[in-house]
Amino acid sequence: xxxxxxxxxxxxxxxxxxxxxGTTILNAARQIGGDVVPPAMCYYSKLQxxxxxxxxxxxxxxxxxxxxxxxxxxxxxxxxTTVMDGMEVGNITSPEVQDARKGVVEFLLLNHPLxxxxxxxxxECDLQNLSYEHGAEATRYEFKRRTFDKIDIGDKIQxxxxxxxxxxxxxxxxxxxxxxxxxxxxxxxxASEISxxxxxxxxxxxxxxxxxxxxxxxxxxxxxxFKNRVWFLKPVDAHxxxxxxxxxxxxxxxxxxxxxxxxxxxxxxxGEVEDFICDTCRFDKxxxxxxxxxxxxxxxRHSVISQGHYVNxxxxxxxxxEVLDGRQPKLLFDIHTTSEVNRPEIDLSKIDGPAHSxxxxx
Length: 362
Ligand code: SF4
Ligand code: FES
Hints:
single chain; binds FE2/S2 (inorganic) cluster; 16% strand; binds iron/sulfur cluster; Alpha-Beta Plaits; five-stranded mixed beta sheet; 13 strands; globular; four-stranded antiparallel beta sheet; 4 domains
């Protein structure tokens, strides 16, 4: 008879869970779920070797194991530390951990440009969320922030090196998913940067996934850049039969009306991609007719993305149309003015429905 696998009993924030030997503290916490799960900015369960870079997942081991109950002397990275039988861990119950996390966030933000108002990642940025939860309201840093020479890494992906937190996720993605890796981290210490070394573009069929794995706005989609804010768009699940056998063809379309603004992979509750998608699905299939729409994507209700999406609401009657004898108010106002941003040949007063990004200059 097969021997029954022995499970390790672990307590995280006084909640017990039994996990297989070799499980990390972070993954044990994910089995419990909820607030006890430490944040992770560099660990990514689908990428081998990830973790151990950002220190946001630090926890306190108050009891090493049943065999050796001594606490660990320092806080440990939960994404890289495996559990022992009888281990006890403090995360949200440990003031020391909360204080250290606040310090880590302050460090991550030291050189960050804080340009959320113009960053395409705003609203779905792990660093933004983390700083809301654990950040100090002001910085103590008095020196000049790091700057980098701008490099062009191709027509689909935009690199903003000043926003990068050097988590290495994109490097592992390029290494493990694409056929040839063209970028990596160059330089050391303060001068480390994501680069292609001799400026060249990233153009493998799966390289677009670096956009999805990047926890900040350092790598963004050039085909979506500045076109809309994510909280104005409606995410819907969709799929298509993709010819690339490595691509699952299951995506999220970010739509406004019938216009598909961008296509991303589907992400789980920890912000990790469920299944990677190819660049053809991501960048070249921007028509609604390219996709079979499954329905609205479920978004965490605390996310800013869900703020504009009301369900089961009754639209109030518009009294203006009644007063105007059924005439549409928009026909009474001339909202069209010509400026640098709109195309003069398109009269914004006369188009059907909301304006489309094609109605404006690129
Ligand atoms: S560009 Fe993004 S994914 Fe790549 S190392 Fe920087 S923060 Fe991480
Ligand atoms: S998630 Fe553990 S060190 Fe970054």
